[in-house]
Structure formats: C-alpha cells, structure tokens
Specification:
Layout (H helix, E strand, L loop, with lengths): L7 H8 L5 H8 L4 E2 H7 L5 H13 L3 E6 L5 E6 L1 H4 L2 H22 L1
Antiparallel strand pairs: 1-3, 2-3
Length: 109
C-alpha cells in the first residue's frame, strides 16, 4: 500500500528530504547564516549543491533569503516559522542517531 501524499508524517519527511538538507537545517537552527558561513560549515558540500538545497528550502517555505546591498552583494539565510517547526524533529533524529550508533558499536565489539 502506497503512503498517502497528505499524511503528516510524509509531509514532515519530505520537508527534510535530500542529501545535506538536514545538515543545512541544523546549521540554520543556530541563527541566520551567509552562503559563505554555510559553505564553511560543510566543506564537503559543493557550491552548486549548496545553492540547489537553499533554493529548494526557500521554495518549500522553510527558508528566507535576505539580500544585503554592497559589493559583493551578501545574502543571509534564515529559517521561516515553518522551518523553525522542524527543530523538535531534527533534535529527535539526532538523539535517535546517537542511540543507533551506540547500539551498532556495542554489537561490533
């Protein structure tokens, strides 16, 4: 049986889907960040993928992009109120991941 597209669990999972998305959201939970700050926090992430993820999060209404005048133009990204609603989910995912890592390491020793 296929999941219902309007199922709240599916909506929440779709909001955080995509490689690097949860890590970007994690960084933005600490406050607004520039493209450079986000890039520095995730050195393995290419500029293209970072730009794609930020655009996707903005299209989903989870991220706000503020452009500041100057040379060069500086963009600052922050979570919208909808993006902030993901905070408890990301915290639970992090804690669950820690528990699973501990469990896996106890089995392998």
């Amino acid at each position: 049986m296929a999941p219902e597209p309007d199922c709240p669990v599916e909506v929440a999972l779709a909001a955080i889907s995509g490689r690097w998305t949860t890590l970007l959201l994690r960084d933005l939970l600490h406050g607004p960040r520039s493209f450079g700050q986000l890039r520095a926090g995730l050195p393995s992430l290419s500029d293209k993928v970072l730009a794609d993820r930020l655009t996707s999060l903005q299209r989903r209404g989870l991220l706000d992009r503020q452009e500041h005048r100057g040379f060069p133009t500086r963009c600052v990204y922050s979570l919208t109120s909808a993006g902030e609603q993901l905070r408890p989910l990301l915290i639970v995912l992090y804690r669950t991941g820690e528990q699973l890592q501990r469990h896996a390491s106890s089995i392998s020793t």
